[in-house]
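Subgroup meeting minutes
Present: P.N., E.W., G.H.
Scribe: E.W.

1. P.N. recapped why we're keeping a running log of single-chain structure predictions: easier to compare across weeks, and new members can see raw inputs and outputs side by side.
2. G.H. added today's entry (199 aa).
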Amino acid sequence: MRLFTWSARRILSAHKQPSGGRREFWGWLNAVFNKVDYERIKAVGPDRAAAEWLLRCGAKVRFRGFDRWQHDYNGLPTGPLGRYRIEAIDATESCIMYRGFDHLEGLEHVEEIRLNKCIYIEDACLERLGQIKTLQDTVKQMTVVSCGNVTDKGLIALHHLGKLERLFLSDLPGVKDKDQTVDRLQAALPRLTIELDLA
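Output recorded in log:
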């Protein structure tokens, strides 16, 4: 995967396209990486398919019962169907986007999600997270940092994550009424601890 990305960048720089062309190419490529293959999900199960999606997009996963984060797509462990269950997702600087979020359906053990510096994360992504029944019952910790397309609306949608215990928010310029947003989350989730570093 890294070799392909490096090669694509070399090809682009050799053609000296205007920066808009490069941006469009990477947007297209990232959209391809986020495409959901429902047949693959059926074949290998939701955890394996989601891990493949996340790593393809530059994120990391940690499997239940393991301390080490998995970041190498080619190094994903193999074994019987359902042996490796995703417990944590670190999407820092990844290209995950809304169109790939169907990969999260059926994940039953995710306790932590980190969304740091994710340029494609927007309100619709957080709303989608809140709609996934299995995540409503498992996610305990979330981090949303430097995601410029997230607003109060997206954060409020996290109130559907009924087991959420800790939420860290930082550098979110789209959040305009942090006090009201925090109050609404706190009212819906009394056990939630919210840590803020918002202007």
